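User:
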Amino acid sequence: MINIEAVSQELRIRPEIYKKILTGFCLSLPAKIETLTNAFSSSDFKKIQEVSHEIKGIASNLRVAKLKSVASDINALCAEKNLEKGKQLLEDFKREAALLNTFVKNL
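Assistant: Predicted structure:
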């Protein structure tokens, strides 16, 4: 999923530090997912855009490409205000977050 050594070199940090940062990001995801779920339930596109933009930026900085891509798609759909597409993307996001969490737990 993520080549820890390569990303650490690219970011110019020790692998242990990258793992700690990545773990912290993973720990923050359940709250982000809950916020997004509630925002979709109430059609709060401003909150959806805010949270998805934050996740997109962090995932990009950490080189978590798939999660960044889904967060970017969620962010972009805010202009369309397409709840059905958004709910599907939220499920994709949950799946990618679960995969990342499993990866991090096995480090």
